[in-house]
Fold this protein.
Amino acid sequence: MVVCPYYLRENERFVVCEWVVDGVEMSLHFGEQAQKIAFQRNTCCTWGYAKRCPNAAALEAKYRAGKGKEDDGETGDLHT
């Protein structure tokens, strides 16, 4: 079971996740389904996902800094 909050969807050889750029998705392509499954078991399906995935770590830092979807991306100030 995937626990990473940045995971969006998958198919046989792809995993699609949120990316650090708002409105953009990141797709991981694997040569074989077994590679994708192994990656997910070791990364997306563990509570340590941010320690094992550079993308998840970047997103954790982004949201900790307050740079969410309504942020201007420079000052950390939210637009109202």
Summary: Helices lie at 33-42, 49-52, 54-64.
